[in-house]
Amino acid sequence: MSMLSGNNESEEVSGVKSSRKRVALVGNPNVGKSALFNALTGAYVTVSNYPGTSVEVSRGSAQINGANFEIIDTPGMYALLPITEEERVAREILLTERPDVVLHVVDGRNLERMLPMTLQLIDAGLPVVLVVNIMDEAERLGLSIDFHLLSQKLGVRAISAATARKRGLDEIRNAISAGGETGRSAITYSQTLERDMERVAGMLHGDYPLSKRSLALLMLQRDDEVAALVRLKEGDAYPAIEEVVREISFARRETFNLDLSLEWKGMVKGIIHGVLQLPDKRRVTNGERLSMLAVRPITGIPLLLVVLYFGLYKFVGDFGAGTLVDLLEGKLFEGLFNPWIIGVVKGLVPWWPIQELLVGEYGIITLGLRYAVGIILPIVATFFLFFSLLEDSGYFPRLALLVDRIFKKIGLTGRAVIPMVLGFGCDTMATMVTRTLETVRERVIATLLLALAIPCSAQLGVILSILSKNPATLLVWSGCLILIFLLIGFLAARLMPGETPMFYMELPPMRMPQLSNILTKTYTRMQWYFLEILPLFVLASILLWLGKITNFFAKLVDWLTPLMNQLGLPKEVTVAFIFGFFRRDYGAAGLYDLQTKGILDARQLTVAAVTLTLFIPCVAQFLIMKKERGWAVSLGIGAFVTFMAFGSGYLLNQFLVATRLL
Amino acid sequence: MKLTEKSEEILESMWIAIEEEGKGFAELELLKVAVDDPAVRELTSLALVELKEGRLYFRPEGKEEGRTTIRRHRLAERLMMDVLNIRGENAEDKACQFEHLLNEGVDTKICTMLNHPTTCPHGKMIPAGDCCEAARNSGDLGVVPLTELKSGEEGEIAYLQSGDDKKMQKLMALGVLPGNRITLLQTFPSYIFRVGFSEFAIDTAMAREIIVRK
Question: CB contact, 8 Å: A266 with chain B?
Answer without folding.
Answer: no
